[in-house]
């Protein structure tokens, strides 16, 4: 960073740390102990697909290796969904880490947007813990059942609960909803 950056209040971008994803395992334990939230066994990685044979080949290899499912959202982003037994959060996180790492190692890191792990609550809103690749941080998204409305108070409660397990995104304006994301329970 230069002097001009300091004077203008610019900060150096946070370098992604994919190993932060493994914090989701302890976060799941914390959530189960303190709330009714339980892992769904679903998690996904979102990225901006690029044209070309190399990218298509990597995507096909990931499908084969990890038995992921692929879909596109209304914004044109690609989602790879991984399914595991709800009790196997470690296996799920390992799959998400493998997808992110593979894309990053092959030069497609700039296309990565986020990863998420879903949780359900029989008595209330579903939850996704979202990892922002470019920020190296997490945030919760609590979706009210059957609606495209968030429970912001619950999100703040969950963020406070998980502050020792995960690097929580401090800029609340970056806590984007992920409506219809594969892996997020309804």
From TrEMBL:
Any matching Pfam family: PspAB
Official protein name in the record: Uncharacterized protein
């Amino acid at each position: 960073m230069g002097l001009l950056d300091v004077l203008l209040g610019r900060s150096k971008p946070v370098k992604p740390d994919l190993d932060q994803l493994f914090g989701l395992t302890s976060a799941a334990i914390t959530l189960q102990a303190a709330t009714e939230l339980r892992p769904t066994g679903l998690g996904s990685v979102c990225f901006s697909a690029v044209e070309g044979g190399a990218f298509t080949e990597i995507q096909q290899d990931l499908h084969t290796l990890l038995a992921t499912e692929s879909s596109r959202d209304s914004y044109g982003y690609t989602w790879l969904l991984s399914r595991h037994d709800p009790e196997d959060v470690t296996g799920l996180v390992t799959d998400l880490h493998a997808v992110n790492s593979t894309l990053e190692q092959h030069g497609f890191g700039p296309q990565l947007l986020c990863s998420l792990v879903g949780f359900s609550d029989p008595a209330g809103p579903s939850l996704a813990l979202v990892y922002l690749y470019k920020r190296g941080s997490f945030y919760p998204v609590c979706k009210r059942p059957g609606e495209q409305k968030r429970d912001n108070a619950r999100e703040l409660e969950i963020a406070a609960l998980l502050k020792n397990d995960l690097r929580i995104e401090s800029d609340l304006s970056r806590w984007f909803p992920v409506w219809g994301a594969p892996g997020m329970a309804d």
